[in-house]
Structure formats: structure tokens, C-alpha cells
Amino acid sequence: MCGIHGIIQLDGRPVAPATLSAMGDVTTHRGPDDEGQFIDGACGIAMRRLSIIDLAGGHQPLCNVDKTLWLVCNGEIYNYRELRSELQAKGHQFQTGSDCEVLIHLYADEGDAFVNRLNGMFDFALWDVRRRRLLIGRDRLGVKPLYVMQDGQRLAFATEAKALLTLPGARAELDRSVVASYLHLGYVAAPGCIFKGMRKLPPATLLAVEDGKVREWRYWRLPGHIDSQYTERQWIDKVRTQLEASVHMQMVSDVPIGAFLSGGVDSSAVVGFMARHSDHPIRTYAIGFTGGEAEALYNELPYAKRVAELFRTQHREIVVKPDVVDLLPKLLWHMDEPVSDTAFITTYLVSQFARQDVKVILSGVGGDELFGGYRRYLGEHYAQRYRSLPGWLRRSAAAVAGRLPADRHSGLLNTMRLAKGFLASAEMPADDRYRSYLQVLDRQTVAELLLQPGAAQADPLEAAFADAHDADALNRMFAVDAQTQLPDDLLMLTDKMSMAVSLECRVPLLDHELVELAAAMPSAIKVRGGRLKHVLKESLSDLLPADILDRKKRGFGTPMGAWLKKELAPLLGRLLAADVVEARGLYRQPVVDRLMADHAANRIDGTDALLAMMNLEIWSRIYLDRRDPADVATELRSYLA
What we know:
Layout: E1 2-9, H1 17-25, E2 34-40, E3 43-49, E4 62-63, E5 69-77, H2 80-89, H3 101-110, E6 120-128, E7 133-138, E8 147-150, E9 154-158, H4 161-164, H5 179-185, E10 198-200, E11 205-210, E12 213-218, H6 232-249, E13 257-260, H7 265-276, E14 283-289, H8 293-296, H9 301-310, E15 314-320, H10 324-335, H11 343-354, E16 360-362, H12 367-371, H13 375-386, H14 391-401, H15 411-425, H16 430-438, H17 443-449, H18 460-467, H19 473-483, H20 485-499, E17 504-506, H21 512-519, H22 534-539, H23 546-549, H24 560-565, H25 569-575, H26 578-584, H27 589-600, H28 607-624, H29 629-638
Helix pairs in contact: 6-21, 10-28, 10-29, 11-20, 14-15, 18-19, 19-20
């Protein structure tokens, strides 16, 4: 695991070593153990390394015996041992024990198609000396990020966007074309990037530069058909076998490993299978919050402890009331791009806690998207039944629900919030209904909010819906999530927040073979009779107790909505005050004031929308105003004095 970066000069000028060094210096947190670079005239590739496998011999860049192929790779190749044995049988000579070295030898044998042989999470850059050709790529699901910046003279790439800002002539500017999409979804969807002149290489994509020409293509897509040949029992057995194999495969490491444990189905399954394949107690880590009712909704420590006792793990838990004012500037610097999902705070805190003991952690991220774990999937499940009711009854119910208060941090008000959302969307076409579940702000409100919407980024949800046009309504939702929210929100924050503390986070539920299996599965066995994750839970019925399998799902976030109404209300008010909003020139102040007032009065739950706007302002002070995150934190604290 590391961070990679590099440049190819399209005009043929040589790459300066100092330029590569500056790119690496700003991402030292990703690889504190080692660094290296290789320059061949107009191309330079480099890395920062966090040593996980072959600690002594895995220095990068790696090369083949005759030094005609050079590689930097960030991530882990889980099937490298099988690939290495196969390649050695063909006569390939390996110079290290690094898992990443198999990429060089596979490329020599199979060309660009080599990437289809890999099981892992990765981004990489490979320089072919003979062909004077650079090839960069990203793993199938987008577990590892990769940013690209291209102009007429050069193409540069990096695991983190901040490395590209160190390049000569580079300047942090806001790309206004993605702001509308960001406010709509709460994150910047690929290939968009918050920085003008940059873009994210989408998951499952390769990019080649040869003879001054740039070519980009997808090498993998989610299966678009449903496989109806298996019985439910066969699907259950297949899921069980593949998930256990994935967890076992991802336990490979030359350093101590552990697991995040919330006591939910996904993390508990990972821990359970780890325990089965380990000859010593698994280290597990959980986080909870101190405070009142709002904080209690996010406290899963009793469930985590129950699972830890079941599998006799070496369990540690941390209970916090995070200092959000100090954390937000630092974490938004690490994130590169603003986000409204408060899970980035929780992920950072539990990663920091786990890093005291381990360098590798396994997470349950991905299970909800693959197997139907979100309540919004139930919304679609029930919407089809609701629409069969008489029209007069539906109209009456919607009118009543529209007057209900909403607050996700209070049990009764949260139920009302969900009812309002369901009844407001139930009459919509399926795609629009699902968009309403995902959005932070609806598109009409975004248009009212922005002073100059400008040329907007292509709608990422529409592209994802089009890509999944053959699936039924529920499987279309799963496919959209796998191509949008999963890589650009959840996996992005998982990578950035764990690597901020030099912790490698692995996601065994996103093994691509398991993903392909889930994508081909009929949706009726994912959500069965109102039971979310039915097939996954059935596959774990002999591993996990019923009270864990069927307990109510809780989010891995923070009670930010409650904090914004109470202790953080002065911070929110100052960051979105008239003088600040006017200086940025993004929003119409009356719409900002309306959103804040409606949230404070529980007329809407505006947590995500307000946090998206607040975080964009904090991000702007760090990157656009070029201020140190610590100085920004000091300023924010003064607003609470």
C-alpha cells in the first residue's frame, strides 16, 4: 500500500527529479516507510510506500530483469501467489517477494489484458521503455483513487489530488461545473473533480499515453443480466463460499492485521470468517459516542462487544465526543474534495485508534450495496405495492405526511422523516424515486441556491441508470450505487481517512468475483418480504446469532444534524453568513437562510445539505485561500467562543 504519482511530458521535455519529490512529500502519510522514483527522459513515475508484504525487498519502482518495464503500484494483489507460481513455471524471473511484481510479468505476457487476471485493490503506473508508453489504471470497484491532470504539455497522475497541486504552474481553482452535482449528491462523482483542470480516472479504467496520444477505456463492467438457473439455496451456498474465500484471501500480510467491528452483519461476518482462518485472536476495533439521545442512535458498542465475545477477539473500543472544529479542516485537507457524509469523521477516528496496534484493517464496506442493506431498497420494495392503493387514499396520505416534522436524530421524528420521503417519492417513476432517496438537495433547490449554475457536469446518476438498463428496479438501484456512491463517497473516504494515519483498509465484500455473483442474483432473494440482505443473512445463519443478523441497521456516521442545531449552530451560522456567502459568489443568501431555518425548526432534515455547504466553505479556505488547516481550525474555534 502506498501512494503513486508521475508525469509524462507530451512535448518531450525531461522530467525533473525535484518535481516528483515534491509530489511525494505532500503525501508522506500514505507511505512513511519508503520512497522511490524512476525517470526515463520525458516520463517519471514515483511512490511513497507503506510496507505490508516483503518488507525488506518490496522497494518500488519495480522492474523486470532487463529493465525494460518499470512499475509503481498502490494497493494489494490478493492472488499474487497463484499468479507468481504460474509465471515462474513459464520461466519468468522474479527479483522480489512483492505482490505487485506480478503486474510486470503479466504485462510482458498478455499486454493490457493482464489487468483482467488481477484480484485486488490497486492503482498503478507502468512504463514500457521499448514502446515509450505509459499505462495507468485503477481497480474494478474503485477501492483505490487516481487523479489525472492533463494540458497540452503534460499528463500527470497521483493517488491524491493534492500531489498534482505541487506541479509547476498548477493552481487550486474551483471547478464550478461540478458544484451543482456536489450539492445534489453530497460528493463529487467521477470523472468529475472539485479542482478545475483535474479529473478522477473512473474505476475499472485504463489510460495509455503513446506517441503523444492519450487513449482511455473501460476493461470491466458489472454483469447486466440476471442468472435464473440457481435455486435460492444454491445462491445462499455460493455467497457463503465466495465471501469466506474472499476474507481468507485478504488476510495475507507480513504485518499485524485487525478488523473494524460495529456489530452489524457485514463487519461481524468479516470478523467471524477471520476467526475461522486465524490461529490467534483477531484484533477488533469499535467506536461509540458520548452524549444524549442523538449520540445514542450511533452507539453500536454493545453489539460489537457481543460479536467480539462470540469470536473471542482481542477487542478494543473507544468512546468519543469528537472535536469537530479541530477535525474538519484537517480531514478535508486529507479528503482532497469536500463531502457531506459524516462517516469520514468516524472512519478517521477509528482508523487512528486501530493504527496504534496494526497496519492493516479489514472492513465490511460494500455489503449494503451488493446485497440490499439500505432502507431505501425497502422504499422501492414497498412503493410498488403502495401504488396499487386507490389514488384518493395516496393523495390524502401524502398531504398529511407533507406537514410532518423531520429529524433523523429523534426516534419518532426520524420515523416521520422516512414517511415523508417515502410518500413524496412513491408516485415518481422508478429512477426519479431512487434519485430522491440518494439526493442531498433536490435539483430544483440546487438551481434556486446557485447564483451561476453554469455548464453543469453530466449527470452521473443518469449515466449509471443507462448502464443498468436491463436490470429490474431493485437491481438497477444496486448497480447505480456500485458505480456512484460506493466508489466516489464510501470508498473514497475509506481510503483517504485510513491512509491519513498510514493504515491499509481492505474490503473483502468487494472482491470482484463476489460482486459479479451478487450482480447476477435476482433481487427477490436480496430483499425478501421486507427483510433486507436476505440472501446474505441466510448464508451466515450458522455463523452469526439471530439478534445480530436481524437487528436494526445504524449508520456509521455522527449525530451531526443534532450538533448543527446546538453546539455547532454558531459555526454553521458564521460559515454561511451573508458576508461569507457574498465573498464566495456561489449561493443566493435567501435560499441559504431558508435551508438553515427549516432545519432548525425540524421542517426538513437538512443535515447533509448544510454540511455539504459548510464543508465546501472550509475546503475553500484550505485549498482556494491556501491556508494551513490548523489556522483554519483556530478561526473556526473563535466562532464558538
